[in-house]
């Protein structure tokens, strides 16, 4: 599905990623692991077309990633970063507004599914009436994960997406994403809850 071939990333004349090669097949669960500042998030940004590839190639369904193919790929990806900024105001309206974006406009907004996910992620229904900016870090992270699931994508990019959750919920959420055979998951994380997951392929970046 996705191939990274001889990928190289240089920052301030310092090569932080060199000759990175790996394939991602449908249903794969991969953990990109390495110390902070080594360029892990950059891999996601290159895949999404947010940054230009300096050296090497990324392929999607056998085609080189470019301005045209990156849009096809984005329609299949749900990206959850460590800090989600979707603006201020009513949580429900902010979630609903995401389905008006160009890449999401064909995805139906499922209010019943939203209620189910709030329960699963241990959030009260009343949170939908709250001001998003006043939520805690853990609440914002759970809202981000809920949005990702609601978008009904095939591929999930999870960048430290469980870092603000308590250990019990973190384990539950990780098992939820890893356990879905139809989902392709690429995660960036540092903690043992990810490292201890059976069947998870680990891509080590750096020394």
From TrEMBL:
PANTHER family: ABC TRANSPORT PROTEIN ATP-BINDING COMPONENT-RELATED (PTHR43119), ABC TRANSPORTER DOMAIN-CONTAINING PROTEIN (PTHR43119:SF1). One of its GO terms (molecular function) is ATP hydrolysis activity. Residues 2-207 form the ABC transporter domain. The keyword DNA damage does not apply. It holds the Pfam family ABC_tran. Keywords: ATP-binding, Nucleotide-binding. This is ATP-binding cassette domain-containing protein.
């Amino acid at each position: 599905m996705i191939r990274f071939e001889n990928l190289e990333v240089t920052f301030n004349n310092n090569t932080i990623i060199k000759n990175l090669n790996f394939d991602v097949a449908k249903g794969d669960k991969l953990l990109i692991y390495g110390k902070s500042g080594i360029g892990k998030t950059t891999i996601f940004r290159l895949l999404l077309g947010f940054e230009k590839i300096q050296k090497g190639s990324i392929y999607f369904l056998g085609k080189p990633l470019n301005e045209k193919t990156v849009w096809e790929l984005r329609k299949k990806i749900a990206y959850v970063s460590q800090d989600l900024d979707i603006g201020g105001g009513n949580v429900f309206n902010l979630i609903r507004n995401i389905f008006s974006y160009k890449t999401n406009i064909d995805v139906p907004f499922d209010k019943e599914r939203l209620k189910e996910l709030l329960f699963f992620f241990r959030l009260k229904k009343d949170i939908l009436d709250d001001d998003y900016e006043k939520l805690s870090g853990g609440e914002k992270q759970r809202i981000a994960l809920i949005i990702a699931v609601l978008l009904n994508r095939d591929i999930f990019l999870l960048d430290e997406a469980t870092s603000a959750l308590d250990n019990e919920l973190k384990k539950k959420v990780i098992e939820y994403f890893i356990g879905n055979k139809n989902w392709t998951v690429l995660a960036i994380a540092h903690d043992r809850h990810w490292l201890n997951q059976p069947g998870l392929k680990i891509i080590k970046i750096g020394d």
